């Protein structure tokens, strides 16, 4: 498994690593979810309140040592190009699922996170029944209470990539030795 090659194949733009111990988990971010600007709050198992409290999210992530943060940038026609943004988001989520599926045979104990909710099923089972595809549903970084702008800086990647470009972020959370194996390099 060559994760660097996989990133190239699915159109990942940048990636970088941070210690999970250094990530700030903020109730303020959760409060932004609750305002529901993205219209994903309470819609799927990948967003709050299904994700549990911010403290529970922090514990789930900090069980692991490292977070590999990655991004995809999508060109838009202009800053009002909503259709372009939605198509870009779909493309990004597909790539995140492809990355998760490729990684799973090598490291089963890890967590994949992505931007915003889960678009896998036409209608989510939340809250009436369990998730249909728990291995493919990826929790939202923002829903976990993470400031994505801060996270990008910690991982050494761009949060903003210029005018008329939207950038989506995902993350693989795992132990350092597993990440070294996937990247084929030593990490600090
Ligand atoms: S995989 Fe389906 S059931 Fe599970 S969170 Fe996503 S949309 Fe909902």
Structure description:
The chain is an alpha+beta fold and 188 residues long. 34% of the residues lie in helices and 17% in strands. It has six helices and five strands, in the order H-E-H-H-E-H-E-E-H-E-H. A five-stranded mixed beta sheet has the order 1-2-5-3-4, sandwiched between helices. The two termini are 21 Å apart. The structure holds iron/sulfur cluster. Iron/sulfur cluster (SF4) binds at residues 44-46, 118, 120-121, 124-126, 131-133, 136-137.
Topology of this structure?
Elements: H1 3-9, E1 14-19, H2 27-35, H3 54-62, E2 66-75, H4 82-103, E3 111-114, E4 139-140, H5 148-155, E5 165-174, H6 176-183
Parallel strand pairs: 3-4
Antiparallel strand pairs: 1-2, 2-5, 3-5
The chain binds iron/sulfur cluster (SF4).
The site of iron/sulfur cluster has 14 residues, from loops.
Main beta sheet, described? 5 strands, mixed
Q: Averaging pLDDT over every residue, what do you get?
A: 94
* Distinct helical segment count: 6
Q: Could you say which structural class the secondary elements and strand pairing correspond to? A: alpha+beta
Distance from N terminus to C terminus (CA atoms, Å) equals: 21 Å
- Beta fraction: 15-25%
What's a quick, concise take on this entry?
With 188 residues, this protein is an alpha+beta fold. It has one domain (3-179). It contains 6 helices and 5 strands; from the N terminus they run αβααβαββαβα.
